[in-house]
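Researcher: Next sequence.
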Amino acid sequence: MARFRTHLTLLGSAAALTAGTLAPVQLAGAQPAAAASYDWVALGDSYTAGVIPAAGDIFEIPRDGCERTDLSYPQVIDRDLSSLIELTNVSCGAATIEDVTFRAQEPIGRNVPGLPEDPDYPFPPVPPQSEAVKASTDVITVGVGGNTLGFADILVKCLELGQGSGGVGTPCKDDLAAGIPAKLTKVGTDYDQMLAKLHERGPHAKILTVGYPTVIPKDTSKCRYNDIHQFFSITPGDLDWLRQDVLEPLNKAIEKSAGAHSSATFVNLYDSSEKHSVCDAGKWVEGILDSDDRPTVVHPNAKGHRNAADHVTSAILNAIAPND
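Model: Next structure:
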């Protein structure tokens, strides 16, 4: 679509965000109804798509199995900046980095291990997410990597190994730790390839790589063993291991890859969500089940997506700000 490169008054870009809401964006030399338009493509996995009921309602009709929800951060930003940007959201639950880069994905819907199969499964494959990026794209956001690392499988294994432990020891670390470095190396390699592909398809686009929020607190004494609304049967020792050796290195791998590409910028969600883990009273990430006993398997709720929206909005505004 045609794009109008009107100079923006961004109210200090990041400073435009106050108290968790976005201040109005004024366009210099233009009436609000004639706002400039920028093309934004949102890519990513379930932490972008939303997926769980606590992140809103599925709005794709008919369902395609990707489970994008209306309170996920791309949709929140789309409403906040509707006069400024045009969103194409192709994020998809369970997506790997390869699904973003080159591989058609077969969405899983709301299939959860140990529960009845999604009644609409199987779903037709969806194209590689990178195909949504065009030469005219101005901004790309991408939040992916956890499924390439295999975090869901790791989580399930930790739940299984922690059963009957009484919360003692590190059975999951003992079983899986040796394989984690190779998984993190693959994340970095695949991420570099993805960023190169995205730059190839959208050579003028600014790429915002969105990290993962805090899921496990530094103080794991907050986490109650066998609490299904937290991490259920995962031991405190394994939670420490997951935080220090799995999740924090995942964010570091994404940040490192972004730093090696001039068109990419890392968006840090980890620090701002530090006091809102699964085990905190004001949680922004749900546990194995949410408070209504619906399967959530450690995914951000609407509050977590609102926080992500604030930080990604700031990054988008900075990305489209004129350089002169």
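Model: The chain has one domain: 8-320. The mean pLDDT is 90.
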